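Database export, one record per block. Field names are fixed; values are copied verbatim from the stored entry.
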Amino acid sequence: MKVITDNEALVQLNDLLFLQSSDLAIPSSIILKVFRSGITVIDDTNRYDFVRFTEAEDIEYFRQLDWMIDYGKVKNMSEEELENLLSIMLDKMDFLDKAEQSIPVNQSQKRHELLQAFSLLVFKFCSLRDILWYKQGHISLNLPEIEPSGTRKLKKD
């Protein structure tokens, strides 16, 4: 999950770990900020923690990642609205799965592209599900609140 304001991008470690394990190009400034010390352990104790990015290029990079849930866009959605989005995403995942299976084995590039799209959609689905679970009280998250001025503060559970 990400929170984007005019001056910063806050991104959960969970998303950064997924990004790092994907085939997607990542700016070196992001790699250095997150993984500079060599070993960065991301587990259940910190996966929902946020990393702050303030460089304009980094903010714009995260803004363009549509597979990463933008908290500002979903925070005011009802449980029903979130469930409807999840249902739509399941339909898209089913479509991508069937499309990938119908491609001949010798078209490996096209299969790879569909598998990557499927993987990104699954990750987005799980992130949106986490927001739903948070709203239902199943999990606890330390989510930033976006102020009208575009600044943020951390919401304490």
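Remark 1: The two ends are 17 Å apart (CA to CA).
Remark 2: The longest strand covers residues 9-12.
End of record.
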